[in-house]
Amino acid sequence: MFIVVGVTGGIAAYKSVHLVRLLVREGHDVHVIPTEDSLRFIGLTTWEAISRNPVTTSVHDDVAQVRHVALGQSADLVIVAPATANTLAAMAAGLAADLLGTTLLATTAPVVVAPAMHTEMWRHPATTANMATLRRRGVHIVGPADGPLTGGDSGPGRMSEPDEIVAVALAHVRRTGDLAGLTVVVSTGGTREPLDPVRFLGNRSSGRQGAEIAREAAQRGATVVLVAASIDDGVLDEVSALPAVSTMRVETAAQLGGAMTDAAADADVVVMVAAVADYRPAAVSDRKLRKEDGPLASIALVPNDDILAGLAARRREGQTIVGFAAETADDDVIERARRKRERKGVDLLVVNEVGWDSGFGPGENTVAVIGAAGSVVAEAAGSKAAVAGAVWDAIAAARGIR
Ligand code: CTP
Q: Could you tell me which residue ranges the Flavoprotein domain spans (predicted)?
């Protein structure tokens, strides 16, 4: 594979020597593009010796070969490691001030960046906005890791380790386009079941995992319908801006069920990530319930339909149905998940352990995927984006893709 490695001006550049070695050792044709600034940390001679290819930094070198776009056009993969705050800002703005800038604009290959900077710079709103822009454009981000930084301080900002960057980057190339031609429907968020015009029964789902499942599918080539119930602020901003994703908003389980049934009619894959209320109030008051109405000793509930089981029972030929189950670790999670998969009649059930402070919100997730034979076919732990990648790998494998 023709791989371009951009190296920018941070102390973590020394780790990228190992990254380039790993890629060369795996037999890839590696072309390093250092920025001028990065040469203060690691010199051209090192990059040429390690990559076994000529290395230049300027768009004015090797002009006859149109080098400023040729490297980007030839690349199967571009990795920028370390990616400084300045480089990420330049990428977000589309600047082409040097050979790395022109290469990044000229490439259509997957781009993976490994940010490295001090925690304050990583958390600055400018960097946050630049990362959101890059993510929206399909740039893959590895890290940064949390740990000791050069100034003796500690926090998120360390460049991820070279072997992790290589693994993530190569996985993205492998996956690029593997879901092309598929139509998928994903539900996310938590339903709200009204009690009166101002109150509802709801749950703590943030909608993040489902949004990542939708984003991953779109990035791998699928056309995505995302049906979103109640979600945290901002969760849908990036994913619903992707051209391959169309988003529908719903509130109750009944509305979610209707939207999913309609969308599933044309879908190859249905993934139910939404946290659906099992019950709704038997009566919905059309005016606000007041204390003067008398004490409300209990709320009568009636069961909602099981949307997932219904979709599985009516699945069209060749359709893959995937459920999610959030389980607290009070007993054998996997055994419960096995029984749930069978009961619901789905192809795959993704089980994640939740607690008062895990599984919800922006944090990490740990999942196991139960397959048709009842065995665990995949396990993943990490960011919700990383988990989404593993879930789609399992779905692709179940459909015999690759
Ligand atoms: N689900 C659904 N319709 C419902 C309830 C759940 O489609 N009325 C879906 C969820 O979207 C999820 C899966 O079913 O994909 C598992 O939900 P879960 O609440 O764990 O299943 P339950 O059958 O409600 O089991 P439990 O008794 O453990 O809550």
A: 3-171
- Relative to beta strand 365-370, strand 376-382 is antiparallel
Same fold, 2-175 and 183-398: yes
First CA to last CA distance, the chain = 18
AA identity, residue 24? V
The CATH number assigned to the domain with range 183-398 reads: 3.40.50.10300
Between the CA of 307 and the centroid of ligand 1 the distance, in Å, is: 8
Look at residue 149 and tell me whether its pLDDT is greater than 90. no
pLDDT tens for each residue of 296-339? 889 999 999 999 999 999 999 999 999 999 888 777 889 999 99
Lowest mean pLDDT segment, chosen from 67-71, 218-222, 282-286: 67-71
How far out from the chain centre does Cα 48 lie? 34
Is 15 assigned a ligand-binding role in the annotation? no
Task: Assess if CATH 3.40.50.1950 describes domain 2-175.
Answer: yes
Burial class (CB in 10 A: 0-12, 13-18, 19+), 152: exposed
| Tokens linked to 228 | 């979103």
Looking at the predicted structure, is the pLDDT value of residue 386 above 60? Answer: yes
The owner of tokens 């598929």 is 182
Q: Tokens in use for 10?
A: 């941070």
Task: For ligand 1, say whether the CB of 308 is within 6 Å of any of its atoms.
Answer: yes
Domain chopping of the chain, boundaries: 2-175, 183-398
Active site residue 203: yes
46-71 pLDDT, tens digit per residue, is: 999 999 999 988 777 776 666 778 89
Helices (H), 84-183: 85-93, 99-106, 119-123, 125-136, 162-175
